[in-house]
TrEMBL record:
Belongs to the UPF0065 (bug) family. This is Tripartite tricarboxylate transporter substrate binding protein BugD. Residues 1-24 form the signal peptide. SUPFAM superfamilies: Periplasmic binding protein-like II. The keyword Nucleotidyltransferase does not apply. InterPro entries: BUG (IPR005064), Bug_dom1 (IPR042100). The keyword Signal applies. Keywords: Signal.
Length: 327
């Protein structure tokens, strides 16, 4: 009888715990949610995150806080969230670097496809090829020729290994079969500062970080890396128009939660993301920055996971051919 009573008490306790967990999931969130950004405040990924944070807060009924954890090409933030409690209170916003990290970092502390639950894609930001305003080439075609003829003296700035500007540079140099001197910085801000100051020749970066400088004439704009011209930069030709069809790249962003986060929590986060992507202010501000929200079909865990796997396969041979793995 005593054993039966003990067993019944244990079962009741387990039922109570399960019910408590289920209730907590159903009641999620009951406190602020943090979106970890792998790069410094003020950069393109930070800008995208802060724009969606407010409408996500309204949908979730809790404040969405943005935390910047910069370093190691975004892998510090990735490691932090991969090891965070799987309860939906700490999630990650990352860009294309999530698909290149497995090849760039042989000792990566996480597997992007196994150590995270996908929440949904957010946006695909076009890239622009820009240069210091007094750089000799005046068109994209002239830039390609100039770089090929002066490869030993030309300098290309990027925001560090794994940054969007680094990846865009790899693809550009692969497309024109020419290697130039690269100058890595600790973030987009310092790279842009030196470009504006004329210390480096050219770079490639997201429209969220370059549109203002191009339209103001602070830098020389050459092309956009998209199939079509952008409304925000109508005078810039596409790289395909300029004769380099194989040089097309966009910097997509997605939201991630730690592996094991309950489906009910992921569902709520995905719903909040989709609400944010339909917000008029988000749509307007994205347009001003030269991008648009993804479709609601793309802002889902299923579409996100499929796209991430596809992008990992796309970038691996390009990075390996360039031999630019982090040590």
């Amino acid at each position: 009888m005593k054993k039966l009573t003990t067993a019944l008490l244990a079962a009741a306790a387990m039922t109570s715990v399960s019910a408590g967990i289920a209730f907590a999931q159903a009641d999620y969130p009951t406190s602020p949610v943090t979106i970890v950004v792998p790069f410094a405040a003020g950069g393109p990924t930070d800008t995208v995150t802060r724009l969606i944070a407010e409408p996500m807060s309204a949908e979730l009924g809790q404040q969405v806080i943005v935390q910047n954890v910069a370093g190691a090409g975004g892998t510090l933030a990735g490691t932090q969230v991969a090891n965070a409690p799987a309860d939906g209170y700490q999630i990650l916003m990352h860009h294309i670097g999530m698909s290149t990290a497995p090849t760039l970092y042989p000792d990566l502390a996480y597997n992007p496809l196994e150590d995270f639950e996908m929440i949904g894609l957010v946006t695909n930001v076009p890239m622009t090829v820009i240069a210091r305003k007094d750089f000799e080439p005046n068109t994209f075609e002239e830039l390609v020729t100039y770089v090929q003829e002066n490869a030993d003296s030309v300098t290309y700035a990027n925001a560090g290994i794994g940054a969007a500007s680094h990846l865009c540079g790899l693809l550009f140099m692969s497309a024109i079969d020419t290697q130039v001197t690269t100058v890595p910085y600790q973030g987009t801000g310092p790279a842009m500062t030196d470009l504006l100051g004329g210390q480096v020749d050219f770079m490639c970066d997201q429209t969220t970080n370059t549109t203002g400088q191009i339209t103001s004439g602070e830098v020389k704009g050459y092309a956009v890396t998209t199939p079509d011209r952008l409304d925000a930069l109508p005078d810039l030709p596409t790289t395909a128009e300029a004769g380099l069809e194989e040089f097309q790249v966009g910097v997509w962003h997605g939201l991630y939660a730690p592996a094991g986060t309950p489906p009910e929590v992921i569902e709520k986060l995905t719903a909040a993301l989709q609400t944010a992507l339909q917000d008029e202010n988000v749509i307007t501000r994205f347009a001003e920055l030269g991008t648009v929200p993804v479709s609601l079909e793309e802002a889902t865990p299923e579409a996100h996971e499929a796209y991430l796997a596809e992008q990992i396969d796309l970038w691996a041979p390009i990075i390996e051919a360039a031999g630019e793995m982090a040590q």
